[in-house]
Design a protein that fits this description.
5-stranded mixed sheet; alpha/beta; globular; single chain; Nucleotidyltransferase, domain 5; 10 helices; 2 domains; 340 residues
Length: 340
């Protein structure tokens, strides 16, 4: 079964075709980074309008790269939530129209579940993990530790009480002018820096059920407004600041993740989301001999349509369909927690 996937939850206009839920035939991602770089962040109105201009060409290119005609597509999947509402509506509406015009089955999927599915796409992982496993979803909008029992079944164990880790990267990068997107800019700078040049604080979450949760507001405040209080080395440069911030941000994630692995006795961790491309995160998890840590390919960490198509296939072969009046939702409950 050839499934066409469409993803427009934020600023990436993407379309791709996946065969039988694992084999990528095409994965076209038209990035809007140059458009939004001047603002050091995504402008929702510009993003949605740009999706409207690009979506037809992107889908056409995805079909061409897959060497398929519309008649050879067996089903259509699109992201319906979470994301920026205006952007979501463009991809979702186009997918509905494509499916309706061809008489094809249509399924609306969850962006979070799609990211956790990305590692199952060949050739990312030749031996996909058996369920259950721990999922680590880290991006500009979400920071989540979860137990994954099936492709569409997860239990949130830990999440952020304020900002997502990717958002923290972006805001620190914007403040210091490191570049956009912030995650990639800081990661590149950090390669030449000393992560011990600053000793930034980690949050102490201990009230209620927060054993696996994260907080990044305090780290952002320390890096942006209280820098001198945490300096451990003189004559530091931007590379040192980037390295120390990156290390602390990742260690906050890993503290909750390692607790979850210990408590659940699950030794397989599947990562997804834009921050899953971070080199420090990957190296730290690679150094854990007791854990099997699976990452998607770098081209599948950010928003893409192959993961949407792959996940959509699983629903379609199970016989599920979405009505053509299914709405888009900008948020999904349980992906952010209050404290205490």
């Amino acid at each position: 079964m050839n499934v066409l996937g469409i993803e427009t939850s934020c600023d990436e206009c993407a379309a791709g075709v996946v065969a039988d839920g694992t084999r990528i035939l095409s994965n076209v991602v038209a990035t809007q980074i140059p458009i939004h770089a001047v603002y050091d962040g995504v402008v929702p109105e510009i993003a949605s309008r740009t999706h409207t201009e690009w979506i037809c060409r992107v889908v056409t290119e995805a079909l061409a790269q897959a060497d398929l005609s519309p008649a050879q597509i067996d089903g259509v999947a699109a992201t319906a939530h979470p994301g920026m509402l205006g952007s979501l509506l463009v991809g979702l509406s186009f997918a509905k129209g494509f499916a309706w015009s061809r008489g094809l089955p249509f399924i609306a999927v969850d962006h979070i579940l799609a990211h956790l599915y990305a590692s199952r796409l060949a050739p990312s992982e030749e031996n996909p993990p058996e369920y259950p496993f721990l999922g680590l979803l880290v991006s500009g909008g979400h920071s989540i530790i979860c137990r994954v029992d099936d492709f569409d079944s997860l239990t949130i164990l830990g999440t952020t009480i304020d900002d997502a880790v990717g958002e923290a990267f972006d805001k620190v990068s914007k403040h210091y002018g490191f570049g956009y997107p912030g995650g990639a800019a800081i990661d590149a700078l950090a390669q030449r820096g000393d992560p011990e040049a600053f000793a930034f604080p980690k949050p102490n979450l201990y009230k209620g059920a927060h054993r696996y949760d994260f907080s990044y507001s305090g780290l952002k405040t320390a890096v942006i407004n209280q820098l001198e209080q945490f300096r451990k080395k003189q004559n530091t440069g931007p590379e040192d600041l980037a390295a120390a911030f990156q290390k602390t941000a990742v260690e906050i994630l890993l503290r909750g993740l390692f607790r979850a692995a210990e408590d659940t006795k699950l030794s397989v961790i599947v990562c997804g989301g834009g921050v899953a491309a971070n080199s420090y995160l990957r190296s730290r998890l690679a150094d854990q001999p007791a854990l099997r840590c699976i990452f998607p390919g770098l081209d599948l960490c950010g928003d893409n349509a192959a993961m949407v198509a792959g996940l959509g296939y699983q629903y379609l072969v199970r016989g599920e369909r979405s009505p053509l009046n299914v709405p888009a939702f900008p948020r999904v409950r349980a992906f952010k927690r209050r404290y205490p």
